[in-house]
Amino acid sequence: MTQARKEIAQDIDEAAGEIQQGASDLASNAQATAEKLGNTLSDFTGSNHSTLKGILLDIDGTLVLSNDAHAHAWVEAFAAFGYDIKFEQVRPFIGMGGDQVVPRLVPELSGEEGVGKQIADRRKELIINKFGADLSPAPGSRDLILRLKQEGFKLVVASSATSEELSVLLKAAQVDDLLTEEPKTTSDDADQSKPAPDLVQSALKKGKLEPGQAIMLGDTPYDIQAANAAGVNVIAFRCGDFDDSQLSGAVAIYDNPADLLAQFARSPLTDSEVVAIKP
């Protein structure tokens, strides 16, 4: 073999080696990229998607038609302390914690102390001793709870009422006997009331649920704000008398529990997976 041919053969061998090394590098890079993508997808599905296991149940306005009664109780409670507050003024705030309602209507008052606290306490007394006896269940409340239990969902009562109020409300909703053993939250379980997420977070903890494992049933924009801030989706009912634009943060809106029950097979409750919202 001539010197020229030797040099050509050597060049070919070197080129082949470089091609082989390049192919090896490409394969390594492709594997690393695939692993990175796989980890990313795993993180996404692991942290944002979960099997639906539990239902967080708001009670006021959701399972019992109590929102107007609460507004009337506020009007009467304010009047007892010399404040002329109209039904139309207080009604839009029903669903908020009482400690937040008071200063919104009378800015110089605190809902946590002094006269403002007395007004809030008076409102609770009126619900328990006066208005509670005339409350009606929302259409389909009992049948919906029965269906949810039949489907095997873990139910958690997510209420901001006091224990005594909650007892009255559950009886009025005609579901008290169906929820005797289920975990329950009350006003004692939240440092901050709705629309802060504290109550929903407490309900998740009591139910041993992650945000992506639960959906909340509610009726006010404050339910939606609180739940979404805790990473939980909401199915909203119109029976609380808030319009659809105010309930737009919900994943679905139905007239009442009966309407959800009638459309159960096509509802978010039949999805095998739910998505946790990032607070």
In short:
The chain is of the alpha/beta class and about 280 residues long. The chain has helices at about 5-50, 65-80, 85-90, 100-105, 115-130, 140-150, 165-170, 200-205, 220-230, 255-260; strands at about 50, 55, 65, 135, 155-160, 185, 215-220, 235, 250-255, 275. Helix 9 (about 220-230) links the parallel strand 7 (about 215-220) and strand 8.
What count of domains describes the coordinates?
2
CATH architecture of the largest domain: 3-Layer(aba) Sandwich
Average pLDDT, all residues = 88
β-sheet strand percentage? 5-15%
Largest beta-sheet details? 6 strands, parallel
| CATH domain class name of the largest domain | Alpha Beta
Helix fraction, binned, reads: 40-55%
Coarse shape: globular
The helix-and-strand class reads alpha/beta
Q: Cα distance, first to last residue?
A: 75 Å
Strand order of the largest sheet: 6-5-2-7-8-9
SSE order, one letter for each helix or strand: HEEEHHHHEHEHEHEHEEHE
Low-confidence stretches: 37-47
**Would you count the extended β strands for me?**
10
